[in-house]
Amino acid sequence: MKNKIKFCLLTGFLGAGKTTLLKNLINALIKDNIRAGIIVNEFGKVSIDGIFLSEVHTDVVELNNGSIFCKCLSGTFLDQIISFSDKPIDYLFVESTGLADPYGLSDIITEVEKRTKGQYEFVGAICVTAADTFMKLHKKLATFNRQIKFSNVILINKIDKVVEDELESIKTVIREINKDAQIICTTYSSIDLSEFNMYTEKDKSEQEKLAILSGDPDAVEGSEFNKRVETVLIRTFNDKAEPLVTAEMMRNDEEKELRIKSFIEKLSEISFRIKGFVALGEDSSLVVNCTGNEINIVKQIITPRVSYELVVIVDNDDKTLKHEIVEKWENIVGIYAEFE
Amino acid sequence: MNSKQLVLNAIQNKETERAPWVPFVGCHAASLIGVDAETYFKDADLIVKGVTKAYEEYRPDGIPALFDLQVEAEAMGCSLKYAKENPPSVATHPMEEGKTLEDLKVPDANDGRFPIVLDATRRICEALGDKIAIYGLITGPFTLALHLMGSDIFFQMIDEPEQVHKLMELCEKVAINTAKMYMDAGVDIIASVDPMVSQISPEDFAEFVAPYSTRIFDFVKSQGKLCSFFVCGNAKNNIEEMCKCKPNNISFDENIEMEFVKDIAQRYEVSFGGNIKLTVTMLFGTPADNINDAQNCMNTGGNKGFVLSPGCDMPFATPVANVKAVSSLVHGEIADFLEDSNVLDGIEVELPDYTDKSKVVLDVITLDSASCAPCQYMMEAVYAACEGLENVEVNEHKIKEKEAVARMLKLGVKNIPTICIDGEPAFISIIPDVSTLKGRIGEAKDKKGLK
User: Fold this and answer.
1) Partner residue facing B81 (CB), from A64, A108, A141
2) Same domain, B79 and B225
3) What average pLDDT does the segment A275-280 reach?
C-alpha cells in the first residue's frame, strides 16, 4: 500500500521568504528521493510564485481566489487536495497567504480524511517570518499572531537585517504566543532538513497533531495544546465498584461488550480521539483506538488490572461535553467510572 | 406579515413571529442555473435568472442581489482573476503598481461591471422587491482599501497612518456612492461587507475603520433605508466595535459563536444574523445536518432581531437539498420535505398499540438530543417529568434515522422537536415545564385507569 502523503502547511506574510523556503525544502527533499506537490495560495500575487516553483519540477497548483481557509472557498481547496492524492508524491505543501487564518484548516482536514480514506497525514505547519517586519506585523495583523500560534516550526528569516537585541525580542514574543514551537533563525530561508523537528521526529504524537487542528486559540489560557483541546480521562473499574445497573443487565460479557461498543460509537461523534482499554470480563478487555469517525475496537486477552483508562480528546470549546460523556457512559454502559 | 416585512422588522431589532430566512446566494446561483461563476458575474440576464431561481427553490424572506466584493475594486483599476466555481478575486493592487491616491476616482454607474450589476439589481428589485427584502452588498471600506493598496497596508498603518486614513476616506466615498446607486436601483437593505476587519485589533478597528463605517451607516439610515455590517472569519474581538458603528444589523460566520454575538449586539440594540456553517454543514453535510444546524441557530437567535442565514456567501456547489432542508424548517414543513426527498427508501414502521391500557407511551421526535439544543432540553424535561412515574414508556426518535422519519410521518408530526403522548402530538416545538408535562401524563394515565 502507498504510504500516507505528509501534508504540511506553510504560512507567512508576503515577502517573508515562504517561496524561497519552499524551493529550498523541495531541493533538499529531492536529494532524499522524496517528491512533493505544492498548492500555492497567495493574496494578489498571481503566477509569480507558481512559475518560480515550477522550475524545481514539482506539481504546482495555484489557488488565487481569496484565502483558502475562508469558509466559502473550502470546497475548491478540498478538491485540489483530493486531486493530489492520486499523484506519486510523498509530501504535499500548501503555501498559504499571510492573511489566511490557519484555524480554518481543521474542517477541511477532517473532510479530506473522510474522502481520501486517510491517504493524508497532517504533519504540521511552518510559519515563515522576516525579522525586519516581525514587530510591525505582530502589532497590526491579528492573523499573523494566529499563524504563529498554530505552527510547529517558526522560521525567523532575514536575521541579518536586525541587531541581536531585536532578534531576542522577537523570540520572546514568539515564546509568549507559542511556547512549544521550534524556532529556527536563518537568512535567505536557508535550512537544513535535519534541523526540522517535524521532519526528523517521524512519530510526533497523534494527540499533538490533533490538538493543532482543533479549537479556538483564544478560548483558554494555559499550555499551548491544552488551550485547544480537552482531554478527558475515564477510569473504569473491573467490577470492583458497584455497577449502576442491575446484575441481570450485565449478565454476560457479550452484553457488556455491546454496550461498550455502543458507548464508543456515540462518543466518537463528539470526540477527536479515543484511545485506551476497557475491562470486559475476568481476563479480557477491549482495546479502543478511534480517530474521528473511524472506530477500531479489538478484544484482547490480558491479565486483569484494577482500573483501566480511556483517554478521550474533545473540543474544549464545548464545556458541556465532559458532562455529556459522563452521562453517556452511565446510561449506556452502566458501570461505575471516575473522570479526571 | 409578508416575508419582506419580516426581514425589515428583524433587521430593526423588532420581535417577529418567526426568524426570517435570508440565504446568501451569490455564486451558488450560477450553479442553480447551470452556468459557471465567471459567465454569471458578467451577465445581467443570468444574475436575474439565478436570483429568481433561488427565490423559487428556497422560498427566502430576503436575498442579496449579488455577492461579489470585487465590483468596486475592478471599477477602480484592480485586475480580477475569474474562476469557474468561485467569485472573482483581486489579482493586482493599483497602489502597488505605482498609482497614487490622486489617480484613483470614485467609480460611477458606467465603470467596470456596474452597468451589469445595477441593471440586474434594478430588475431583481422590480420582480421580487414587493415580496421579499433585497440586499445590496457593498465592499466594506477596509476590504476595499486592502484591494487597492495590497497587504502593504499593514505596514502603512504603522509607518504612514495618515496615508491609510486618506485611503479610507476615499473608500468611504466609494462605499457611500455605491450604496446610493444600489438604493436608487431599489434595494431595501445595504450591507457593508468587510471581512478584512477580522485581520486587525479592536484598537486599530477603532482608529482605521470605525469612523468611516459609521458615516456609511449614517448615510444609509439618513436615506430611510436599513443597513447591515457583514464580517467573516474570526472577528470575535471586533464584534463590539462593529456594533459601535451603529448599523441596524450585524452578520457573522461560524468562526464566532452566536451566543457571544447575541449578547453584545442586544446590548447595543443591534439585530444580528447568522450563522449556519458553510463548510461542515452546507457544503459537506446532509439535509438533516442542515435542519439541525439551523434549528440550533434559531434556538439561540430567538424571535427578536434575529435573521437566519448562512455565515457568508454560500459555496458554489452547495447541494440544493441542503438549502431546501433549511427552508422546510423555517416554514414548518420538515415532514413534507423529508417525505418528498425519498429518505425513507421504502421503510415501513409499525406504530405501537397506543390503546394498550398497561402504560402511557411518550414518543419524542427529535433531530438528535446529543447535538440539537432544543431537542436536548425537551428530552431533559421529559426525563424529569417521568422520574418516579410508573407505567410510562419514553422513546426518543431521532430523524437522523430513517425509521424515525417514517414514525414521524405516521404520527403526523410536522415540527421538531415534538412530544407525542399515546400517539397524539402534545407539545410541538415547545418545551413544556416539568409540572405541565407531568399534568398531561397524569391525564393520559387517568384515561387508562392507571395509577
Assistant:
1) A64
2) yes
3) 72
Q: At what angle do helices A142-150 and A164-177 cross, to 10 degrees?
A: 70
- CATH code (residue B373): 3.40.30.10
Neighboring chain A residues of B236 at a CB cutoff of 8 Å: 218
Q: Are B77 and B198 part of one and the same domain?
A: yes
Looking at residues A79-96, what average pLDDT do you find? Answer: 85
In a domain, B342, yes or no: no
Q: Phi, psi at residue B46, to the nearest 5°?
A: -70, -40
Contacts of B158 in chain A (CB under 8 A): 136, 139-140
Mean pLDDT, rounded, for A250-263: 70
Confidence band for A242, pLDDT divided at 50, 70 and 90:
very low
pLDDT of residue A40: 79
For B202-247, how does the pLDDT look when each residue is reduced to its tens digit (9 = 90+)? 999 999 999 999 999 999 999 999 999 999 888 889 999 999 999 9
Report the residue of chain A nearest B148, measured CA to CA: A44
Instruction: Give me the residue spans of the domains in chain A.
Output: 5-204, 225-339
Percent of chain A with pLDDT over 90: 13
What is the tens place of the pLDDT at every residue in A309-339? 777 766 655 666 667 777 777 777 766 666 6
Question: Do the domain assignments include residue B322?
Answer: yes
Which of A40, A61, A72 to mutate to test binding with chain B, by most B CBs within 10 Å of its CB?
Answer: A72
Which B residues 330-389 touch A at CB under 8 Å? Answer: 370-371
Give the CA angle between residues A112, A90, A206 to the nearest 5°: 55
Cβ-Cβ contacts under 8 Å, A98 against chain B: 151
pLDDT bin (cut points 50, 70, 90) of residue A207 is very low
- B339 in any annotated domain: no
Instruction: Say if the Cβ atoms of A46 and B204 lie within 8 Å.
Output: no
| Whether B374 and B257 share a structural domain | no
β-bridge pairing B271-276 and B249-251: parallel
Instruction: Give the whole-angstrom CA distance, residue B374 versus residue B250.
Output: 24
Burial degree of B113 (CB within 10 A; 0-12, 13-18, 19+): buried
Rounded CA-CA distance A137/A133 in Å is 6
- Residue B239's domain comprises 3-331
List the end-to-end C-alpha distance of chain B, in Å, as a whole number: 47
Cα separation values, B57 from A49, B32, B33, B126, B332, Å: 42, 9, 11, 19, 16
- Minimal Cα–Cα distance from A73 to chain B, Å? 7
Low-confidence ranges of chain B (pLDDT < 50): none
Mark whether B153 and B197 lie in a shared domain.
Answer: yes
**B255 in reach of chain A (CB within 8 A):** yes
Position A339 scores a pLDDT of: 62
Residue type, B52: T
Judging contacts by C-beta atoms under 8 Å, the chain B residues touching residue A318 are none
CATH class entry, domain A5-204: alpha beta
Pairwise CB contact (< 8 Å): B283 & A108 = no
**Collapsed DSSP state (helix, strand, coil) of residue B226:** strand
Task: State the nearest Cα–Cα gap between A140 and chain B, in angstroms.
Answer: 6
- Mutate which: B74, B147, B149, B154, vs A, most A CBs within 10 A: B154
Q: What is the pLDDT of residue B209?
A: 97
Identical fold between A5-204 and A225-339: no
Is the same domain home to B304 and B366? no
pLDDT-derived band of residue A297, with 50, 70 and 90 as boundaries? confident
- Residue B217 counted as domain residue: yes
The set of cell numbers assigned to B28 is 451558488
What's the confidence (pLDDT) of residue A1? 53
CATH code for residues A225-339: 3.30.1220
Q: What is the pLDDT of residues B75-97, one digit of tens each?
A: 999 999 898 888 888 888 999 88
Task: Verify whether the Cβ–Cβ distance B88 to A266 is below 8 Å.
Answer: no
**Overall average pLDDT of the A283-300 stretch:** 70
Domain count, chain B: 2
- Cell numbers given for B266: 442586544
